[in-house]
Amino acid sequence: MGRMPGSAVSLFDLDPSFAHLNHGGFGAVPCAVTEAAQRWRTESERNPHHFNRTVVHDEIAKARSVAAGFLHLAADEAALVRNVSEGVSTVLASLDLCDGDEIVLGAMVYGSVRIAVDHWCRRTGARVVEVPVALAATDAEITEAFSAATTARTRLVVVDQITSPTGMALPVADVSAAVRGANPDTAVLVDAAHVPGHIDTDPSALGADFWVGNFHKWAFAVRGTAALWASPRWRVALQPLVLSWATDEPFPVRFDHPGTLDYSGWLSLPAALEFFDRVGGWQQVRRNAELVRLGQQLVADRLGTGTEGLPRHPAPAMRLVRLPDGMLTSLSDVEILVRRLRVEHRVEAAPIWFDGQGYVRIGAQVYNSPDDYLRLAEALRAISR
């Protein structure tokens, strides 16, 4: 499986001397989307007063409508926010937590989400309940673990649709249903940071109360572009973190304009989704999935670590490879390995320390080829000698 005809690498500003295998980290913005964002910045400077008083509001509403449509939602069902961290903090700030309340998290929760939850628990007297999730757990085991952790005091359950550190696709609809069975009053928040452009999803069909996903990881948007969906029962209570002129407007309009900002990223979201379609859309995602599966096998074979015990349901375009024993011995080793891969071998990948074992998380995007995974394998072999 080679690169796309004409080499899609030329469609990005990526340094061609690197093997870029961590698309899930920060995404990559195509040249066409960068240019669209620049056109919006130029347009805003032609008449800043007119643009910021009049033009930007209608254009944000259009971009929001495009984002909602991509998620199979109506235009008034999703708000634009900057990222999942902002969306999670928005939900936490709207919950009115009290002393003794509980928030349930999976063990693979993303670090900034855990930081936000810890903050609100310290501030309100609520407490965190962590759900252990084994790397090779079945969907039934994962669902049961979240259900068992839900009690009469549980106000919120946070579940990842795709776990960031391990690239597991979790059964969020099953978890939502199980949580409802354990406590009908518990709200469910789906962290979908890796979902838009990666898994074709309708947030309203998952049985959750909140869903927030980044368009800047897998859907080619400018960083700082995400969507926050809320079920109808929560839309009145959900307020943006920054209160501005639209605070009294209904959801999602109250989120549209948190003051004077550079909105070119949001406004160029239609260009990002046009690019997604132009390079193959969901068919290209399926090609990425096959490429990363082959890449995982290639790297594991070269390292001699095999693929047993890895996630049963990996995300389509992200996979884990187990590192040789001793290559990582603690979390503090991760950044050292990141630097060695980058500086010594010009490879970008994501070493992971999870449950006492070292892994490397790899991804596949339209600009990758099998040679990139071979390069990673040889770099890891050289470092491990």
In words, what does this structure look like?
By secondary structure, the chain is an alpha/beta fold. It has 2 domains: 37-274, 3-Layer(aba) Sandwich (Aspartate Aminotransferase, domain 2), CATH 3.40.640; 280-384, Aspartate Aminotransferase, domain 1 (Alpha-Beta Complex). It has 12 helices and 12 strands. Strands 2-8-7-6-5-3-4 form a 7-stranded mixed β-sheet, sandwiched between helices. The chain has a 3-stranded antiparallel β-sheet with strand order 9-12-11. Helix 11 crosses helix 12 (370-384).
Summarize the structure.
With 385 residues, the chain is an alpha/beta fold. It contains 12 helices and 12 strands. The protein has a 7-stranded mixed sheet with strand order 2-8-7-6-5-3-4, sandwiched between helices. Strands 9-12-11 form a 3-stranded antiparallel sheet. A two-stranded parallel ribbon has the order 1-10.
Overall number of domains: 2
The largest β sheet comes out as: 7 strands, mixed
Q: What is the count of helical runs?
A: 12
Low-pLDDT segments: 1-6
The CATH top-level class label of the largest domain: Alpha Beta
- CATH fold group of the largest domain: Aspartate Aminotransferase, domain 2
Proportion of residues in β-strands: 5-15%
Q: What value does the Rg take, in angstroms?
A: 21 Å
State the order of secondary-structure elements, H for helix, E for strand.
Answer: EHHHEHEHEHEHEEEHHHEHEEEH
**N- to C-terminal distance:** 30 Å
Q: Please tell me the CATH architecture of the largest domain by its name.
A: 3-Layer(aba) Sandwich
Per CATH, the superfamily of the largest domain is: Type I PLP-dependent aspartate aminotransferase-like (Major domain)
Please state how the strands of the largest beta sheet are arranged side by side.
2-8-7-6-5-3-4
In round numbers, the mean pLDDT is 95
Helix share of residues? 40-55%
Shape: globular
Q: Given the helix and strand composition, which structural class is it?
A: alpha/beta
Number of strands: 12
